[in-house]
Specification:
Layout: E1 3-5, H1 26-48, H2 57-66, H3 85-116, H4 119-124, E2 130-134, E3 150-155, H5 158-171, E4 175-179, E5 192-198, H6 207-217, E6 218-229, H7 235-252, H8 264-267, E7 269-277, E8 282-289
Parallel strand pairs: 2-3, 2-5, 3-4, 5-6
Antiparallel strand pairs: 1-7, 6-8, 7-8
Bound molecules: S-adenosylmethionine.
Residues 90, 93, 97, 108, 134-137, 140, 154-157, 160, 181-183, 198-200, 203-204 line the site of S-adenosylmethionine.
Length: 296
């Protein structure tokens, strides 16, 4: 079941009416719990597996050039070992996703089926015009955009983008792939009609900074489309999330207690639509870049 809520970012949470959520059968509940455990175990195995995976940067980039997808932008910001916390976290995250890329679609097959259902499709159908997807990953959304959308996909991980390039090729979908950091987009102000991020807010080191960058590159009136797992408003579910969170952050770089509704308003977005499902864990948000009122 899916409940849609029209709401404003400035209204208090209790007044937003986030109180009734999809019901799951016992079987689905068990499978969802097992699925979460499975993802955690795969993440732990991944961290403890020191074998090098077969994607080599050289091979990947040569291979990308042969695809019809536009090559990774060589001028995109080089992500280097830095000294700030978010640069160090970026670096850890990039290594994690470079290493996990080959398994990612397999994890997501279960997660998408039980947790997201048709949410990707529904969200991407709202994109129009110049569209930027941040944290593109392996490009699981590529098949869901309307054909008229001019798509740019950005990610920190070259290995994830390499898989996205293959997917774009298979789908015949043109996409400009950029290796870059969503905390500091090397893209012009007010350029995009739509910015999309799915399962990105829960993994990016500094989600507020990434939201501020999304706001900067959107045209006034442009829309930010988000889909993610968030902190549940249902107390027992949230307690379970609190228990699991340290493990998920440590081993899967995945934050269970975030919610973009906490800060989108202060970044300058107006929430146009918010839908919750799966015990309030899955959230879809449509937020508009606010147009400042004309001076009187
Ligand atoms: C959980 S995956 C989601 C991938 C895809 N959006 C999906 O829905 O399947 C998170 C992705 O965000 C990317 N990411 C995290 N932080 C980033 C950053 N600061 N800049 C760019 N990409 C980032 C990761 O490399 C990873 O590919």
């Amino acid at each position: 079941m899916h409940q849609a809520l029209e709401q404003s970012a400035t209204r208090p949470r209790a007044a937003r009416g986030i109180d009734a959520f999809g019901t799951l059968s016992v079987t689905r509940t068990v499978v969802t719990a097992l699925d979460a455990l499975y993802i955690l175990i795969v993440a732990i195995c991944n961290v403890t597996d020191h074998e090098t995976i077969s994607w080599s940067c050289g091979t990947s980039s040569q291979w990308i050039r042969r695809t019809s997808a536009r090559p990774l932008d060589r001028n995109a910001r080089q992500i280097t070992m830095g000294t700030t916390t978010s640069e160090r976290e970026n670096d850890r995250l990039r290594r994690f996703y470079d290493k996990s890329a080959a398994d990612y679609d397999l994890w997501m097959r279960h997660y998408d089926r039980w947790m997201l259902s048709d949410a990707r499709e529904r969200l991407c159908a709202r994109a129009h015009g110049q569209t930027l997807e941040i944290g593109l990953g392996t490009g699981l959304n590529l098949g869901f955009y309307p054909p008229s959308v001019q798509l740019t996909g950005l990610d920190l991980s070259r290995a994830m983008l390499t898989i996205a390039a293959q997917r774009a090729l298979d789908l015949g979908r043109e996409v400009a792939l950029r290796l870059g950091d969503a905390h500091a987009l090397e893209l012009p102000d007010s350029h995009f009609d739509t910015v999309v991020a799915t399962l990105f807010v829960s993994s990016v080191p500094d989600e507020r900074r990434a939201a501020a960058e999304a706001w900067r590159v959107l045209r006034p009136g442009g829309r930010l489309l988000l889909l993610d797992h968030v902190r549940s408003p249902i107390a027992p579910v949230r307690w379970a999330q609190r228990l699991l969170n340290p493990l998920m952050v440590r081993f899967a770089h995945n934050h269970l207690l975030r919610d973009p509704l906490d800060y989108l308003g202060s970044v300058g977005f107006v929430i146009e639509h918010c839908a919750r499902s799966k015990w309030g864990i899955i959230e879809e948000v449509v937020a508009r870049k606010d147009i400042p009122a004309p001076l009187s």
